[in-house]
Records
---
Amino acid sequence: MSVNVEIEGEIAIVTIGNPPVNAVNRAVRERLLALAQELDDNPDVRAVILTGAGTLFVAGADIAEFDRPAEPPFLPDVIARIERAVKPWIAAIRGAAFGGGLELALGCRFRVATESARFALPEINLGIIPGAGGTQRLPRVIGVADAIHIVAENQTPGGAEALKLGLVDALVEEPLLPAAIAFARNALEHALPSPSLDRPVSVPSPDVWAEAEDRIAARAKGAAAPARALQALRHGIEHGAEAGLALERSIFLELRATEEAAALRHLFFAERAALRPAEIRGINPRPIETVAVVGGGTMGSGIAAALLNAGLSVVLIEQDEAGVSRARSTLAGIFDSSRRRGQITDDQASERMARLETSIGYGAAARCDLVIEAVFEDLAVKRSVFAELGRVCRPDAVLATNTSYIDPRLIAEGLPGPERFLGLHFFSPAQVMKLLEIIPTPETAPDVLATGFDLARRLGKIPVRSGICDGFIGNRILRRFRAEAEALVCGGVAIAAVDAAMRGFGFAMGPFEMQDMAGLDIAFLYREAARSRGEDVPEIPGDLLVRAGRKGQKTGGGWYDYAAGDRRPQPSAAAERIIVPLVSARNDVAEEAIVARLMAAMAQEGQLILDEGIAASAADIDLVEVHGYGFPRRRGGPMFQAGRASADKT
Ligand code: NAD
């Protein structure tokens, strides 16, 4: 039974136990509804405590049910019944009270919580809004301005903050249940407060709504749900709770059926699965506390920052004094900017720098549990680094390369103990980007692979296992995506039209703006190297631009022109003239057709990657694109898009 009842004197204790997160599913709803009646009818019971089994209250509704039509009894009706129960219900909360869990708690007459409690209405992250009264009861309990932050802006107060907000009536110590029972006995001595929904609420000035709308629009990135959550909340304040509940429910059901919500659910499940792939289940990772990072350039510094942020100790190894001091100042800059943004305190910034040691020789690597190499992308340089590491590191230390393209098997050739080697491919900026591609070689030991996944979890990253191929999963799809974008331009589509279409789809930048920012020269040199090996690599517009000295923003122009000190791209007649030999007559293609071409190219490459066994699942490919390449989250990823496109055709 997922809902358990015990009677302690005149108090009934109802415990929701539906591991792992006590999700409210149909069985839980049915039982709660029946219990509200049963306990009202029980003359021995005077109050009801509602709590969750284990370390949390209820982390939400059962998302797996969202892909089916809603089944009665509906959560709003269950909560309404609890709220109107003759015997008052008291929520006793430790850990997460999220989504439907918080809505249930709001339906209770009182809430008591421990410090560990955490309150959230995260529905907007799944493309929906709270659907069981959250947008209506919360403002009536804590006031409109604070409710907006939680309903539409993802604020997640803890126990102490919730007490200040008036969201909980008492903050108690563990053990929770005896404290809740004492609270209940005391409450029964006094007149009961009104049910949440009946409480008076003051209507805010129009400025409050306007400011909230602006804040929400600025952060939404095209997502619909946050503004709709605000709309439901406001409607209830302006037209009464009943009208608010009706609108909330209809928006909830409408959004639940959208592509955006399906995409966000798809990613939610993909992310959860990514952290615990079947192949490492039950395998213990190696303990990692001190990590050496070899190379302190763009990637090495970012990787070191990510490790320091996660509480690990770092030894950063560079080739000379200049390299060391450059890396130190990059890291100081990274923590300083987190400090200025209020993400960490002064003390935390200094403490992180104190966990950083820099070194020119490899000696310090001898006491490291893990080494991540991030030197130049050059096989000979990387091999010489691993030759040193093979000599100095402990035989059980895990050794990793951050290479973007070089076959890790070649890098590990001759390494003593190749079973401890793997690729850990971070993305720039490494302290920010969530993706970590994990690339085992055929010799990588299972516990070394498990160590890679465990490290990702500790760094707050999304790990995706990739097989070995040129560019692994992400850069291989990126190359195909760029090639298709250039093919569109060769076919007469304007450069700016391609970029505008992809921005319209939800990318922060189009493919050409992105290349201008990153520089066109690295990909060019890569193609030139292939040509010099005798491979047949046809000339593309990007080659002509680089040969003409247009390498992107850093040279004042690439696909676009840039005024000095200005990163805004301006259409470039010069660029168009240079690429003319490879471009057909102007051919205007509709935005949707441009998007469809580029999506199809990504999905085709993704399918090849799947067929070759490079990625374990289509969902993994979507995670790579969303967390490493700026693919708009609300679109679910290229494989999700391909699934929708083929479903539309059938
Ligand atoms: P970078 O040129 O910014 O940094 C390389 C650093 O390595 C330099 O500071 C250099 O002094 C140092 N170095 C070179 N040889 C060394 C040695 N023998 N010992 C110690 N330090 C040495 O390069 P980067 O962009 O940080 O790239 C590093 C690696 O990460 C490459 O393999 C690259 O392909 C990969 N990578 C780069 C990106 C990116 O976006 N830049 C993304 C993912 C992976």
Note: Residues 294-300, 317-319, 323, 374-377, 381, 385, 402-404, 426-428 surround nicotinamide-adenine-dinucleotide (CB under 6 Å).
---
Amino acid sequence: MWLSKFAVSFVPAQLTSSYWLPEPNSTFAPEVDGLFMFIFWLSVFFFVLIVGLGTYFALKYRRVGTTEVVVPSSSHNTALEATWSLIPTALIFVIFGWGFVGFVDMRTPPENAYEVQVNAKKWAWNFTYPGGLQDSDLHLPVDQPTILTMTSDDVIHSLFIPAFRAKMDVVPGRYNKLWFHPTKTGENVLFCTEYCGREHSGMNRKVFVYEEGGVEKKLAEIQETMDKMDPAELGKITFTKSGCMQCHSIDGSKKVGPSFLGLFGTTHDITTGEKITVDENYIRESILEPMAKIAAGYNPQMPSYKGQLREKQIEGLIAYIKSLKNSSSK
Ligand code: CUA
């Protein structure tokens, strides 16, 4: 880390400015931006030099009405050729070294970091905090390193927090670790940056950074609000925050899964040829074991929410679906 900080200190402040980059809210940001701006201004310098000299020579030595053929007076120039080979080579080594130091830093999580388990699925994020509380947004302490231990239930997703300059694939069947050190309290955005299907673009959440003790306070608050809330209201919040809305509409339109509008109490053929009625038990089973009974005409692709929704939230979802009655009789 010290080496890249040392390298960044050579770059004038105005050149490392994050004018057209996301807000720099982690310790990685100045390192990444410094290298980016170094490469950017280096490229600008050589672009102007080469295009400028090319234009100048093209104009200066243009053909002006003479038929005289100029015979070149020299075949090569060793000193000149060595110079234009060695300078770019040295610059490439500088860029490589600078980038490599940053890479090693990003791949070496510090000890005593705040640990959050991350689970990704089509198309929702779930974060489990020390103590077992869960939320679909990321809550973090400021001025302390955080490690995310990430895995996926289905396809490859990728977690990206632009303001932290932190990004890593979230792969099914393995745990990937991503770490960063937030330096500013406030709100940031988290994206999925690996195309993972139809609702990929909706797979984004908020990252909240708090003063010391703020995370625990916020999580306790979420828990308390959830306990007090009217079931249908909690169901509505769970519907938007836990990813249900990516695949289910509430206005009757068909998305990946059935719309929740007027769904409760309806009867459907399932793929085994039997019939089911959408009641409390069927909704509960569909949330925990979605592959058990698939309604005809739908692809079996809903992920299980076992262990990721609390009993209260499941009851809430049932109450919410029950409350979405069709006003026009069909
Ligand atoms: Cu998950 Cu894209």
Note: The first helix runs from residue 2 to 8.
---
Amino acid sequence: MAVVEIEIRANVAVIQVDNPPVNAISSQIRSGLVEAIEQIEDNNAVDRAILICRGRTFMAGADVREFSQQPQPPHLPEVTAAIEASHKPVTAVIHGQSLGGGLEIALACHYRIALAGSRLGLPEVKLGLLPGAGGTQRLPRLLGAEAALSMIVSGDPVSAEKALESGLIDGLCQLSTENPLADLFEYALDFAQHLDLSETSHRRLSLRSATAPNAGLYDQWRERYTKRQRGVDAPQACIDAIEAATSLPFDQGIARERELFLSLRGSDQSQALQHLFFAERRALRNTGVGTAQARPINCVAIIGAGTMGTGIAMSFANAGIPVTLLEIDPQALARGMDRIASQYAATVKRGKCSQDEAEQRRELIQGTTDYAQLARIDLVIEAVFEKLEVKQQVFEQLDRHCKPDAILATNTSYLDINQIAAVTSRPQQVLGLHFFSPANIMKLVEVIKADRTSDVAMSSVLQQLKRLGKVSVTAGVCHGFIGNRMYQSYQREVGLLMLEGAKPSQIDNALYQFGMAMGPLAVADLSGLDIGYLMRRSLDESKYEQRAFLIHDRLVESDRKGRKSGAGFYRYDASSTANQDDPEVLELIKTIATEQGVEQRSIDTEEIVQRCMLALINEAGHILDEGIAASAADIDLVYCHGYGFPKHRGGPMQLASCWGLAQVEKQIDELARTQGPRWWNASKSLRDAAQKNSW
Ligand code: 3HC
Ligand code: NAI
């Protein structure tokens, strides 16, 4: 069938769209819809139409892949204008998702009905865009400015049930039989047959006026989003466009929307966000595990009920999967179970789930201190102390007590998973699952394939993580895998910058302004400086730049371990404010610089950001050279989902593309010249990328 077809049912024209998998609105669909409207206008046998989609969903938006190509007419605003201008009322019949341009088409229709359970939204802002086909002008005319702000600026979809309540849709088809799509079709024909044709022109949203909201509403939203999404353009442009809807006639509002849309469409921010959208989907497909059949995972066990173990347990329970939580002693177990209970209580308090749901989830987590309880478990995730011997002892126990086909995973941050697998009789079933803290909130998981891990084990956990709603990135074994290995290079540069004269607050502010969720020294204080200290003690000294961590080490040795001890790079007492330099630390930095013969100088924000980013990019290049990560896009996912890297910059590798890969190569070569080649040796991947101008 063509992507758009018309079937005549008595006096009703049925316009059907078919563009799998999500009916993205391609240029063919746009021209097909305009032609369909023209045909219906000319056909005297029909006096009304329904617009319905085949497959799993209504139209999920403009075809994003076309944004990088020369735009082909008709443009989407022309399509929505043509639909709305039709003299015969068109009813949008929604199932699955009606998103972005898909909802804008529905808003241009004269009526909208939906199948129960569908979702409607304008998520363009999440791709660094705004609804560019009349959505910012029609929605405020239908629901008012405040409701439009809430949907368009957040980008979050609403349920069909909520849409009926608000007036976004005019009818809801309940799920009653085993064939809901057939029911929806019958419901739609019946709905269309009962329309009062004399109302058609009144149903055109462009003819309605949008009421101006209370003074100050737009400024409140601007302020909120300046804080919530620092430096991100799209939310602000969405607010501007909605303000135009309530202050200008429709045609002028549409012109303003178009102007704002075009300014965002080619922007670096939008490209970065689109890059992440496709990277997430590619990561799900390109796992490097071929077609290995996944085994079902119906129950899991977590070893260690500390910070990570409790968070991981909650991630599984939240997806309805029973968890056995094993601790070394009953007191530690009780503390862990209490932590879980209080986290669920906080979730209820924040309105994220009901008391009953929280209770059900909590009951799915059962504590034990007895390995015999693990005999039937499908997947075990160890999250005990970061010490090889301790983990090896745990894995020996697991190997003894778990069924032969159970998968055994470790949440280690740095340790060699091959050495952990080696103590078991089933190294093919041992792998790394590196969750991020807090594990029940953070979406990223690095899935580490050790030398002997089987594809079946990988495929089984990847499928399971998808069920949990996680973003999985596969990685190979090395010290720190993808994320922590790069983070160490970033911290190295931070340490060297301090020795060379940058103050801690200056570094933190520079990187915070760049868009990082927190400055690196505030992060170090929060996680505890002793963790890195202990990790470095277990490392061969040739593996890291010792000079760069002298300040960190000296702080730990004087009992400044970060927030938990009341002081680290900053002080955390009543008299100090956030990110305020402590004279004692500045003095310590000076002393170490003198000891090391480093002459201090004034360093500007640009140099701080550039060196820290180049350190990440160069290490990432080596990670690609070694095959630890499968692609540059995977590395970006790790940084944006696990390390607070600003999503509107798309990750370090996308940033390098945006800066110009040849330019980045040149800057790294210059740093190799001035700082020495030990840590600034450009990777082969970067050299190749600079040649072909893409990763
Ligand atoms: N354009 C192009 N391809 C799209 C797409 C889009 N808008 N939406 C989804 N796809 C592709 C995905 O890349 C994926 O491709 P793959 O199979 O080759 O990897 C495939 O469709 C299936 O997508 P998902 O794996 O994401 O399927 P799910 O069922 O998990 O989710 C969805 C479906 C909720 C529709 C989700 O894909 C989604 O959120 N899509 C984006 C929606 C969106 O942002 N729409 C706005 C677009 S911008 C716009 O409309 C501008 C207008 O205002 C002018
Ligand atoms: P934690 O110290 O909070 O918890 C560890 C728990 O393991 C404690 O409750 C302890 O009683 C228990 N335990 C110790 N030995 C045990 C044994 N033999 N059997 C059963 N339980 C035992 O540590 P945290 O922070 O949860 O870290 C756990 C692991 O996760 C480490 O490998 C760490 O490197 C890794 N990790 C930590 C992250 C973090 O941000 N905290 C992030 C990602 C990984």
Note: Residues 300-438 form a domain with the Rossmann fold fold (CATH 3.40.50.720).
